[in-house]
Amino acid sequence: MATAVDTELADKLAIAELVRMERYWRDTAQWDRLAAAYTPDSRVRTTWFDGSGPDFAEASRDMAARGRLSRHLITPTYVQVDGDRALTDSYGEIHNRERVAEVEVDILMYCRFFSRVVRTEEGWRLASFDGIYLKDQLTPVDPGASLPLDWAEVERFPRPSYRVWAYTLSLKGYEIGTEELAEDRPEQIEEFMRAAEEWLREGN
User: Fold this and answer.
1) Domain residue spans in the chain?
2) Which of 27, 29, 118, 133 lies at 20 to 30 Å from 35 by C-alpha?
3) Does pTM surpass 0.90?
4) SS3 at position 128
5) Pairing mode, if any, of strands 38-45 and 123-140?
6) Considering the chain, what percentage of its residues have pLDDT values greater than 70?
């Protein structure tokens, strides 16, 4: 007979797998599976998107069509479970290769992926997804190449944790918010985490 410990471990493994596969389905253009990872009333917030999980899948399809192709790496996921609710927190990286100012570059974002998760009749599903941004960088693929980049243009984006990321997304036509969760405003992250912990305990 399964014990409470066995049940909790099975839940944590299922949630960690959901988190891992959500990024995999996005990276491999499996849009229907990506949409199904979320509840219909979920909320996804990233630098370039704020809306439901199913709408995020469609927006990701459009982003891929524009030529912005990302690959996500996820470290082991920290999972907290309380009944039919859970929180997940992972460190991760987002990798892109594209051309900026006619130079082929690698763009890298160091971040965290944070979600509220709920148990449904179909199993565990993501009720939210939030990117928390740590730092970014841009490197020419050719180490001998110079990047004719106007840094004053980059500095128009005020948040140091994701200004390079925001600048390169703006070149694809995306408007990037200035109030995203990011390491340069630790008090913002602390408030966000307190609200998530309250939701886990009380469902509010």
Assistant:
1) 4-202
2) 133
3) yes
4) strand
5) parallel
6) 98
Q: Which helix (H) or strand (E) holds 170?
A: helix 163-170
User: Rounded to an integer, what distance in angstroms lies between the CA atom of residue 163 and that of residue 65?
Assistant: 23
Question: Cβ contacts of residue 123 below 8 Å, gap of 6+?
Answer: 14, 18
> Cα dihedral sign for 33, 13, 71, 56?
positive
Per-residue pLDDT at 204 exceeds 80: no
Round to whole Å and give the CA distance between 174 and 177. 10
User: pLDDT tens for residues 172-201?
Assistant: 899 999 999 999 999 999 999 999 999 999
Which residues are 8's β-sheet partners? none
Residue type, 43: R
Spell out the CATH class of 4-202: alpha beta
- Burial-class residue 101 by CB neighbours within 10 Å (0-12, 13-18, 19+): exposed
Nearest to 18 by CA among 133, 134, 119: 119
